[in-house]
Amino acid sequence: MADNKESETMKTGTTTLGLVCKDGIVLAADMRATSGNFIVTKRISKIYEIAEGMAITMAGTVSDAQLLVRLIQAELRLKDVRTNRRSNVKEAANMLAGMVYGNIRKFSVIPGISHFLLGGKDVHGYSLYDLFADGSLTKVDDFISTGSGSVFAYGVLETNYTKDLTVDQAQKLAVKAINAALQRDSASGGGIQVVAITQEGVKVVFSREVEQTVRV
For the segment 86-124, what is each residue's pLDDT rounded down to a tens digit? Predict the structure, then answer.
C-alpha cells in the first residue's frame, strides 16, 4: 500500500496476528486498506487460504501481496501434483519466503514489500511462521503480530497469552488484541476477521465491522 520513492514515501499500515494454541492456530487481521492518509477500503480481506489446512495473513503493498498469494497457491498445487503428496507447512513457508526474497531483491530503494504470517496443520502438527518483508523466515512458538498496529496488539497478547490456550479462547483474545489496535492505530480499522486452523481445516470464525470509538 505504498508509493515507494526515495524522496517521497507514502506510509501505510495494518494489524495482523497469529496465535499458537494447543488444538490449532488462530490468525486475525483488521480490514482496512490505506494509501497515505486516505482510506482506500474498509472491507478488504487480509487472510487467505493457500492450501488445504494452510492460511496466511498479509501486510504491505497490496499488489505485491495479492500476487504472491496467487503464486504460492498455484505453486503448492503444482508441487502436490508433481510429488503426488500434500506439501507440509514448513515446505510452504520456505517456498513463500523464497518468493518474497526474490521479489524484494528486484528493487534497490524499497525497504520492504510484503509481510506474511503462515499457519497450518500437517502430519507434524500445527505450525506458525513469520515471513518478514526481506524474505527471512522464523518459526513462532507462541504469538506474533505485524503492522503499524502491532505495538497495541502486543500489549494485549503479552498480558493474556498462555501456552494452554484453546482455539476458542484464542479467538476471543485475537479479537481483543486487534480491537486494541483499531482504537489507537489510524491505519488499522474497518473490521476484524479471525480464521481458525483446526482438525476441520481452515474456517472463518469471526468477521465483523468495527468502528473506532470516540471518547471526550
Answer: 999 999 999 999 988 887 666 544 445 789 999 999 999
Q: Which CATH superfamily is domain 16-209 in?
A: Aminohydrolase, N-terminal nucleophile (Ntn) domain (3.60.20.10)
What interhelical angle do 150-160 and 167-184 show, nearest 10?
140
User: Which is the catalytic residue, given 9, 12, 14, 61?
Assistant: 14
Q: What is the pLDDT of residues 149-203, one digit of tens each?
A: 999 999 999 999 999 999 999 999 999 999 999 988 877 878 899 999 999 999 9
Provide the residue ranges of all domains of the chain, joining segments of one domain with +: 16-209
41 is an active site residue: no
What rounded mean pLDDT belongs to the chain? 86
Model-wide pTM > 0.70: yes
In sequence order, what are the residues at sequence separation of 6 or more whose Cβ sits closer than 8 angstroms to the Cβ of residue 160? 173, 176
Percent of residues, the chain, with pLDDT higher than 70: 83
Q: How far apart are the first and last CA of the chain?
A: 32
